[in-house]
Amino acid sequence: MSKFDALQQQLEVFHALDFHQDPQLAKRLNDVQTWQKERMRKTHHDFFAVPEHHLMTQYFLNRLYGGPDFDVLAAQIARLINNAGMVEKIIPDSAIRTGFSGVELAVLAIRLDQALAVELLNTYAPTMPLNDDIMRRAYLKLDQREPRLRQMALLDELGISLDKYVRSRMVKAAFKMAKGLAYKYKVGPMYDFVEEGFEAMKPLNSAQVFVNTFTAKEREIIEKVHSGDLYPFA
Q: To bridge 232 with a disulfide, which of 51, 70, 164, 224 should be the other Cys (CB 3.0-4.6 Å)?
């Protein structure tokens, strides 16, 4: 299976999600995603507040954890797949693979959060404000421990890829030169998705260290939730 076949599968998973045809579910999904991002801002406040971490923080929250912008990216991914041969000629393979890893992470985050949104709609009124205890109970009911740990493992892999490829002058030069052609062939949003990740790590000594610090704390929270801690997000 080629990397583009894998990307096609991710796109199919995304388009098959129920929230596309269910406005109420889409609204609750947005509530869940908003809560997730606010929770992460609180949990990692001091870490995110470091000036050098600002760009990577925004990339995490706004790109890798889904949101409405992903709809635009998904449409561009379809165009990219249809022009796979051209894309491989103008964008370095390492950059493509790094971007695909980010797409997989974003789709997984949306899928997991949609499951939470469904559970919340089944348990509470659609307008019930979300809080830590409601979300803790939803996590437990769905038993998302393993897929959430998988999410952290994928993030760790992305950190390694960013360090490995973005530090390469040849990759950076080739990627920069590809920008004009990417926009010419109308795959600009996908190019931007990858470029934002590259730009976000420039102020860092190591993307891998940043990601590992983040995922270590998130794993602690996952384990607290599933060990019965009543205040896992505190």
A: 224
Classify residue 190 as exposed, middle or buried by CB count within 10 Å of its CB (0-12, 13-18, 19+). buried
The single-letter DSSP state of residue 128 is P
> Is residue 233 one of the residues assigned to a domain?
no
Q: How many domains does the chain have?
A: 1
pLDDT under 50 in the chain at which residues? 1
Structural domain including 40 reads 3-226
Q: What letter would DSSP give residue 130?
A: P
Is residue 52 a contact partner of residue 144, using CB atoms and an 8 Å limit?
no
Nearest Cα residue to 153 out of 59, 219, 56: 219
The pLDDT of residue 198 is 77
Residue 231 maps to a domain:
no
Select from 234, 60, 30, 225 the least CA-distant residue to 147.
225
Amino acid at 99: G
Predicted local distance difference test score (pLDDT) of residue 132? 97
Q: What is the pLDDT of residue 21?
A: 96
Question: Computed from CA positions of residues 234, 135, 221, 113, in that sequence, does the dihedral angle turn out positive or negative?
Answer: negative
- In this prediction the pTM is 0.87
Number of Cβ atoms within 10 Å of the Cβ of 186: 12
Is residue 62 included in any domain, yes or no? yes
